[in-house]
Amino acid sequence: MVRERIGRVLALDPSAPAVEFERHWHTWGELAASADAVAPLVRPGERVALLLRNRPPQLGLLLGLLRAGACVVAVNPGRGVERVRADLGSLTVTTVAGGQADLAAFAPRVRWFGSDALGSVEVTGDRPAPDDGELRPEVAVEMLTSGTTGPPKRVPLTYETFRRVLAGAKHYERSPDAGLRLRRGVVVVNAPLVHLGGLFRILQCVNDGRSFCLLERFRVEEWADAVRRHRPSTVSLVPAALRMVLDADLDPTDLSGVRSVISGTAPLSPEDADAFQARFGVPVLTSYAATEFGGGVAGWNLADHERYWAAKRGSVGRAHAGCALRVVDPDTGAPRGPDEPGLLEVRAAQLGADSGWTRTTDLARIDADGFLWILGRADQAIIRGGFKILPDEVRVALERDPRVRGAAVVGRPDARLGAVPVAAVEPRPGVTVTAEALLAAAAGVLARYELPVQLRVVEALPRTPSGKVDLAAVRELFTQQP
């Protein structure tokens, strides 16, 4: 059980270093003190909203709640005051946990667990009655999906799902020893804990008894400093962060200890992956995951990358052990053959043997060797006067331009044509470019009906905490005056 494993690891060596934050080390004993402070305050299955930031006190609250068997309702305090307050108000929880400033800014007047230091938890308000509030003893975390295409939805992830995910991750390790002990090496965690990628990395480190360096947010200089000092063999970079590293003035020796880069969350162009490997000598292993699946279901490994990358570049890899992928006809549900496009369906091992097939909204193809290509989102397709446009294909064309760091393409309603594509483009640092020049270059690779009718050059694309482009915010750009 995950909750039991957390408690046993925290007790192994209280004086050993566990987490580094802002160049200061905190011990396993300090994390255990937070867990000890929280445990008597909650019942197994009690839903507790946690305003989750990448800081040690919130990390202590998270581990304490999970060790107690609570249901952690992850809330992102960075979504803006009105949205966070509305989110908390809709949850019907009787307890909210977080930093004192966040509680004062966002939380309704229920019971509060306030923590600004590891081991210290200040309780405000009365303990809820035994029959007050829903109990969900099987659910470890309720987590929002990224919300890049519309209102986010909250997905329940069970303790059993996390157990399976953590066990499955051992399949890809060089030394898949699951024994109870503290291990050598330091992991650099730069993904937000309120996102599945960051949460998984933390749980993986604690489950393995491995210390980690926690970054409050991704900044190239701080990330590179951590990588130079701790020399992790594997690092994780979402595509936006990977491009930032490419654009930065880093010496290849800064990454001399890194054997591979894991990249997921959003599409990464094979050109960027190749550029990263050419510069730093480190292969980029892309992956495919979703919060609904509790993590990854497909990806590259080093052996496949060495053998197949030249022929399969652009793929997100093959199904993870125990997972299954298939492409089906969107209308009939009939399975399609190798390289035939359709809707992707997934059977995720971490959801259990009886979970069945889950249909996604991703258009995909799978080749005869089992490699998966994501072609775009079916629910984002733009129908322009009868012509079907996949925004991801337009985005890829725009990002091939060496002046472009990132692009986003969305549909805008049109009275005559139904909808038309519009695009926002973030240029590379130090580059000045006009919309007209970018459209002229894209015209060489796109059909006329695929060309955006409006293109805006922006200083930075709006992004969610997970690093995905916030498409709702991009649409808002085209409702504002330029």
Largest beta sheet: strand ordering: 7-6-5-3-4-8-9
Strand residue content: 25-35%
Mean pLDDT: 92
Helix content: 25-40%
Q: Biggest sheet, open or closed, and with what strands and sense?
A: 7 strands, mixed
Uncertain runs: none
End-to-end separation in angstroms reads: 54 Å
Give the radius of gyration. 23 Å
Counting helices, strands and paired strands, the structural category is alpha/beta
Can you tell me the overall shape?
A: globular
Strand count? 25
The number of helices is 14
Describe this structure in words.
The strands form six sheets. This protein has a seven-stranded mixed β-sheet with strand order 7-6-5-3-4-8-9, sandwiched between helices. The protein has a five-stranded mixed β-sheet with strand order 12-13-14-15-16. The chain is built from 14 helices and 25 strands. With 482 residues, it is α/β, with parallel strands linked by helices. Strand 19 and strand 20 (372-377) form a beta hairpin. The protein has helices spanning 2-10, 28-38, 56-67, 81-90, 100-106, 159-169, 196-208, 220-230, 239-247, 270-280, 302-312, 391-399, 435-442, 471-477; strands spanning 17-21, 24-27, 47-51, 71-75, 95-98, 111-117, 120-124, 139-144, 154-158, 183-189, 210-214, 234-236, 260-263, 284-290, 295-299, 318-319, 324-328, 342-347, 358-366, 372-377, 382-384, 387-389, 404-414, 418-427, 454-457.
